[in-house]
Design a protein that fits this description.
Helices cover 2% and strands 29% of the residues. By secondary structure, the protein is mainly β.
Length: 250
């Protein structure tokens, strides 16, 4: 439970939106948890302390455990004294387990001073051996216009002894948005229930739906997970009387 009371001295705050407080919660275990406001007020600087708060939103959070990233695959070298497998990184697609909407990928790796050549390859085979040779060693490569799907970028270094071990970096691309969907109010669009229930759901055939963003009227966006939405109907936060629109993005 959190209690908060604050004040802005004269002339007070002027604006359409602002941040009153930031709260950091520490997770004890995985699961779903609601966040609700039992009461609240925003008092105008009009000499009367008029409460101008029009609504209080609620949220529901799905807390999960962090899965370890997919380890970089290494194909060992066959000859002693050859270069070790380079460590590959990517600023555009850093997490092998996540999907990215960017179809151009850039990769970087370290090239020691004794390296005389580099071989690269991008493809669908996890343990493929690179075949494209750069006799002037390079330490980065950008690949444009890649199709959606799971890809592997491979790098191999050569020194005076020979070709070394191979590193394989997995990355995932999905440039297509989720399927279009509609929002349906269970009890119609004119209701007396201050916590309306709605149905909406969509799919994404390749990467799935990561989260939904919901905006009610002039309020801020809040987030919810596909797991909660799949338990349709979805109950909106408590609303004050009045007409407003709802926007849902997947």
């Amino acid at each position: 439970m959190v209690n908060f009371e604050g004040i802005v001295l004269n002339p007070g705050f002027t604006g359409s939106s602002g941040k009153a407080i930031t709260i950091v919660f520490r997770t004890k275990a995985a699961g779903n948890t609601p966040l609700t406001f039992s009461s609240g007020s925003a008092l105008a600087n009009d000499g009367k302390g008029t409460n101008i708060l029009t609504g209080i939103g609620n949220a529901n959070f799905s807390i999960g455990t962090v899965q370890p990233g997919a380890p970089e695959i290494v194909t060992p070298a066959e000859i002693a004294g050859t270069p070790e497998a380079p460590v590959i990184s990517s600023l555009t697609h850093p997490d092998p387990n996540k999907w990215y909407a960017e179809s151009s990928a850039k990769f970087n790796w370290n090239v020691p001073k004794d390296i005389t050549a580099v071989r690269l390859l991008v493809g669908k085979i996890p343990n493929a051996i690179p075949t494209i040779t750069y006799t002037t060693p390079i330490n980065s490569k950008e690949i444009a216009d890649l199709a959606d799907g799971i890809w592997y970028f491979s790098v191999r270094l050569k020194n005076s002894v020979g070709w070394g071990a191979v590193s394989h970096f997995r990355f995932q691309i999905d440039t297509q948005p989720p399927e279009p969907f509609a929002i349906k109010f269970i009890d119609g669009t004119k209701i007396e229930n201050p916590k309306p229930t709605v149905i909406f759901d969509t799919t994404d055939s390749l990467s799935g739906v990561d989260y939904y963003k919901i905006k009610i009227g002039e309020g801020d966006f809040f987030f919810t997970t596909p797991e909660i939405v799949e338990k349709n109907p979805y109950t909106l936060p408590l609303q004050n009387p009045g007409k407003r629109s709802i926007l849902v993005q997947a």
